[in-house]
Design brief:
With 115 residues, the protein is mainly β. The protein is built from 1 helix and 6 strands.
């Protein structure tokens, strides 16, 4: 059993946000939930968790995000849902700069899924 060692609960957003591997330019997956400490990505195939990854959030046009959000993250766990065709991978964000942290906090505050 995996213990939940999160310091902050991750939040689901009311938008689909693409997450791109900044090194390859390929789609890594879609944001399932996030906090300033970590993200959960959903993807069609398992993601590489062997090192640090650099990701970019791609916002839909209706969000009109003025600045791109890049972050480095280390894979912590991954699995395929029991009744799912998708893989889920949890990443811990590493050394998020203050200005990026502020943009993520603002994104969460304005687009938190309530329900």
């Amino acid at each position: 059993m995996l213990l939940n060692k999160r310091r902050l609960e991750r939040e689901q957003l009311d938008r689909f946000i693409r997450v791109v591997d900044n090194q390859s330019g390929e789609l890594a997956g879609f944001l399932v939930d996030l906090s300033v400490d970590g993200v959960l990505l959903g993807s069609d195939s398992p993601l590489d968790m062997s090192g640090t990854s650099r990701f970019k959030l791609e916002f839909p046009d209706d969000l009109q995000a003025s600045e791109e959000v890049f972050f480095d993250a280390k894979g912590i766990w991954g699995n395929q849902g029991e009744n799912s065709i998708f893989y889920e991978t949890g990443f811990r964000i590493i050394n998020m700069p203050g200005e990026v942290r502020h943009r993520v906090e603002k994104l969460i505050a304005s687009h938190r899924l309530v329900g």
